[in-house]
Amino acid sequence: MIEQAKVPPSLQPLIHASKVNKVFPNGCHALKDVSLEVLRGQVVVIIGPSGSGKSTFLRTLNQLEPITSGQIVLDQVDLTDKHTDINIVRKEVGMVFQSFNLFPHKTALGNVMLAPMKVLKQSKAEAQKTAESLLQRVGLADRMDNYPSRLSGGQQQRVAIARSLAMKPKALLFDEPTSALDPEMVGEVLDVMKGLAHGGMTMVVVTHEMGFAREVADRVVFMEDGELVLEETPERFFHSDHPRLQRFLGQVL
Amino acid sequence: MQTQSSRWLGHGLYLVIMAVLISGVYFAGQKIDYTWHWERLWPYVINTESQDIVAVTDGTAVVDKSGRLSIQPDYGDDPQIIDVYDTLVSRDGDLIFQGDTIARIDGWRFGPIAEGLWVTIKISFISLIFAVLLGVMFGLMRVAHGQVWRNLAMTYVEVIRGTPLLVQIFIVYFFIGTVFDLDRFTAGVAALSIFTGAYVAEIVRAGIQSVPVGQMEAARSLGMNYVQAMAYVIMPQAIKRTLPPLAGQFINLIKDSSLVSVISITDLTKAGREVVSGSFAPFEVWFTVAILYLVVTGGLSLLIQRLEKRLSASD
Questions:
Q1: Which of A133, B121, B157, B201 could be disulfide-bonded to B138 (CB atoms 3.0-4.6 Å)?
Q2: Distance from CA of A95 to the nearest CA of B (A)
Q3: Contacts of B236 in chain A (CB under 8 A)
Q4: In terms of domains, do B172 and B229 share one?
Q5: A114 CA: distance to closest CA in chain B (Å)
Q6: Among B81, B73, B75, which Cα is nearest to B97's?
């Protein structure tokens, strides 16, 4: 990012993806020249039909999905450079999954404490203190000792968010965090996410929750067929007369 | 849903069928021309006959006031002192020759069957530990990213699973044992652990692959490296899932250990064969040997069930 060298780091984009291409081994061209910039503290919501590549793109941002060509720079670290230690990058970018992926053999508290203890080498007491306050923050102070199997979907997803936050990430990636939830639990998870957004967390969210996009997002991105079709502020996005977006919104709303 | 009464009916019916079967075996045993001598078996399990204490040199017996027996040798060596005995055979001042019985000690010691049982438990337990180590190592290699690891592990599993254990024992003892100068016990342990390790590797591989992909992704996205993710997230879950098939494999290991008797390790089976020729009570011996195997395998099975229960706390 030579052209940005004179800009102070705090004003540079935290996440900078440029011309990202992903071709799966079976020949499927999942991402076609996708570029996106996310500034510090911004919330970017990605919407699009299933199979549009939005989840794949999100997963490239912490290299869970290696890319075929292009460049992804995260806080001035080039993820696509093969000399970059990807584990160091990953602990600075949290990820929340559609299916929660809590560790079933650990309690809620244990789930949140594991990575800080093993990766950040925190002491047990220190990790526990952080974990307790995070679980309190997501409204689960009374469920800390429960195993995931004893928690509802909404509670599990909130534990998953607390687990990501325990690593003190610079940004959080959400991969359809409410899609696997019963309708009555969607609200509790979205509330936690709104709280994070208002607290200044940088977030990239793949979701079908248009209300969330309208209310919280700084920018909304529409993807289709592996292409980034449209990127706008929420007001302009939802009033856009782009034909492909219109067709999609007509199907989901 | 089963009702309570039909469950009890089932238990009752089971007991009746078992009673019929067992009495059938009993009457069949009565009908054949064979005299049962269960009592002959006891000395081979636990020997309660008193043991002789033998003099090690020529000398003179000395019994002091406290009753302590010692043999004062003729030629200036240190005296042989016997502190613990139950019956005195020699008297104070007796002339003793090397090999004479000077006292007897009561109590019991293990007979060949009990010693064979101990060898079986020992060889199974040591082999089990090595089999688990080999199995986990090769199981991890089977799911590793490097093709060379996967090929190596596959070769190990296929070669070992594709050849009979008896042949492997012969090869390990006569060929590898000769090359590396192994004693029979080590050769037996090596053959059993290599054999069982191949099956454990397949069980471990299946266990790891049964853990959802999302678990690895979640662990990696928290910044854990592959080894940490395996150690703290994948393996703890995989082990829980593999316990039932592992229990079966460990029970097989205990039973397979009977094959090491072909390289003259006196395990429970070989002890049985020896006792048959000494006691002339083959039926009793083989029934006893079978029951002892059942006790060991049953104990292990019970142990693993309890472990499973403890690990299921998170279900």
A1: B201
A2: 6
A3: 105
A4: yes
A5: 8
A6: B73
Domain contains B272: yes
Q: Can you tell me the ipTM of this complex?
A: 0.89
Interface test with A, best of B213, B222, B232, B234 (most A CBs within 10 A): B222
The predicted structure's pLDDT at residue B308: 87
Which of A92, A118, A160 is closest, CB to CB, to B224? A118
Contact B218 A97 (CB under 8 A): yes
Same domain, B89 and B166: no
Whether the CA torsion B114, B120, B121, B122 is positive or negative: it is positive
Please indicate whether, in this complex, the C-beta atoms of B232 and A118 are within 8 angstroms of each other: yes
Say yes or no: A134 contacts chain B, CB-CB below 8 A: no
Residue B2 lies in a domain: no
Smallest CA–CA separation between B151 and chain A, in Å?
Answer: 22
CB A205 within 8 A of CB A196: no
Q: Per the CB < 8 Å rule, is B222 touching A94?
A: yes
Q: Which stretches of chain A score pLDDT less than 50?
A: 1-2, 4
- Looking at beta carbons, which residues of chain B come within 8 Å of A84? none
Average pLDDT over residues B22-38: 87
My answer on whether B306 and B163 are in the same domain is: yes
B224 with B126, same domain: the answer is yes
pLDDT tens-digit map of B131-189:
999 999 999 999 998 999 999 999 999 999 999 999 999 999 999 988 998 899 999 99
Q: Which residues 153-182 of chain A have a CB within 8 Å of chain B?
A: 160, 163-164, 167
What's the first-to-final CA gap in chain B, in angstroms?
22
pLDDT value, residue B210: 94
CATH of the domain at B60: 2.40.50
Show the domain range for B101. 52-107
For residue A106, give the chain B residue with the closest CA. B314
Which residues are bridge partners to B82 per DSSP?
B69
B269 half-sphere exposure, CB direction, 13 A CA radius: 14
Task: Name the least confident of A97-106, A126-135, B52-61, B118-127.
Answer: B52-61
Domains in chain B, number: 2
Nearest to B240 by CA among B208, B262, B212, B263: B208
Provide the whole-model pTM: 0.79
Dihedral sign, CA of A200, B219, A36, A187?
Answer: negative
Residues 6+ apart with CB under 8 A from A237: A213, A219, A220, A222, A230, A245
Query: Is residue B28 one of the residues assigned to a domain?
Result: no
CATH number where B272 lies? 1.10.3720.10
Dihedral sign for Cα atoms in the order B148, B154, B160, B163: negative
B46 assigned to some structural domain: no
Residue A149 and residue B314: Cβ atoms within 8 Å? yes
Chain A neighbors of B214, CB-CB under 8 A: 97, 99, 101
Pair B269, B145 in one domain: yes
Q: Is A99 on the interface with B (CB under 8 A)?
A: yes
pLDDT digits (tens, 9 = 90+) for A24-33: 999 899 999 9
CATH topology of domain A13-100+170-250: Rossmann fold (3.40.50)
